[in-house]
Amino acid sequence: MAKPTGAVCNLACTYCFFLDKELLYPGSPFRMTGEALEAYIRQLIEGHETPQVTVAWQGGEPTLMGLDFFRTAIELQERYRRPGMTFENTMQTNGTLLDDEWCEFLAENDYLVGLSLDGPRQLHDAYRVNKDGRGTFDRVMRGVRLLQKHGVEYNILTTVNRINADYPLEVYRFLRDEVGTEWIQLIPIVERLDSDGLALRQEGTEVSERSVQPEQFGRFMTTIFDEWVGNDVGRVYVQTFEAAVRNWLGMASSGMCVFNENCGAALALEHNGDVYSCDHYVEPKYRLGNIADTQMVELLGSDQQRQFGRDKSDTLPGQCRRCEVRFACHGECPKSRFAVTADGEQGLHYLCAGWYEFFTHIDHPAKTIAALLEAGQPASDVMAVMGSEVPDLETMASRAPRNSPCPCGSGLKVKHCHGRSRTTPTEPTTFPVFVAEPRPRVTRTRINNPET
Ligand code: SF4
Ligand code: SF4
């Protein structure tokens, strides 16, 4: 994963942990040079034994490099390609700088674009703001429509934060029905604060008020899963659900590093050629070297990186080792393992309660999908299977009119009982006005002298 502008971005999303990372390279122009670009593409190609090469651009905001940089990257791919080699270029962007010229380029070169959008306007604008603190919803939606107009393949990356996590169906249905996307990534925001209140290093056991809470996250994911498994299997692809099914099928990789047994294959390349163990560990301690001095493939195979990869499973606490959904969760990402287990052991994932709820909740439908696929039937048949089963109380409540008596027999209306957390498309949500506190910015002095 290459970061040609380092952590530099034209926006200032309040929860973005990259913002402070600019200060790790004081005085840097944060632009990948032509030499570093050529070394990266050449070494990436040389390091591949397989014919398909993925070139992943990330940020910060990669489009700040301008189109010519990416045109050069495509020329270099052509220059160094071996016979039979194909390239998949991917880019994660906030979408605000896209225009027709960009989208023509992306379409011509078969880019897969990941675009960040956190839900309907009020939810998106809660944290995704520009440097003046103004919401970016309109500019991002303009970017989505341009991608659609030019037929660029794209997916939507939605962060799950303290605010939008209370509105799972509003978020999901907005993406599906109003944006019209068929590919969704849901990434939890866990912003860990060190003793200085900075989200710069993987230290501290406190999280920011922007971070999603474990139980809240579990509710968010299970609610969306139920909507998906009831209506959209085979039509809408939610990355986490796909990864879960792959783990239920026992496949070698889930397709998401956080749900694999070990780490190690997701190097992060900074703008100056420095290589780090992972995009979430761009810190001096995890710097493996620089591609000007050492081939990237050597850095990937280095003892330091192999150990980094193994640490994911080696450091699992007992609670994870004994957990019945470990095969699906694998203790998630080590960067957020700063909670304490029920028996007092350090190193549990902060979102454990949410992941546990999610993975146990989806066990039956995930097993059903796996069985269908193994029998050569389409995964979408799960919708008919689930629909024919006697529903549980929650499901019955979710299907009943909100003002009817709750099927549990409590005498309360559905909306005050088992249907409490539910919203329906006929009842549009009125969102409160969310005004996030501006993120406290840190100074170079504090970064260079952390003890201050
Ligand atoms: S540290 Fe987290 S993000 Fe990085 S490779 Fe491991 S699981 Fe993936
Ligand atoms: S659900 Fe919790 S205990 Fe189970 S593997 Fe995941 S983090 Fe560990």
What does this structure look like?
This protein is an alpha/beta fold and 452 residues long. The protein has helices spanning 34-46, 67-80, 100-108, 121-127, 137-149, 168-179, 214-231, 239-248, 296-300, 303-314, 318-321, 326-329, 352-361, 363-374, 382-388, 393-399, 444-448, and strands at residues 52-57, 86-93, 112-116, 153-160, 183-188, 192-193, 206-207, 237-238, 268-269, 274-276, 287-290, 339-340, 346-348. The strands form 4 sheets. It has a 6-stranded parallel sheet. A 3-stranded antiparallel sheet has the order 9-10-11. The protein has a two-stranded antiparallel ribbon with strand order 6-7. The longest helix is centred in the middle third of the chain and has 18 residues, at 214-231. The two termini are 33 Å apart. Mean pLDDT is 90; it is low at 440-452. The structure holds iron/sulfur cluster (2 copies). One iron/sulfur cluster (SF4) binds at residues 257-258, 263, 266, 278, 280, 312, 333-335.
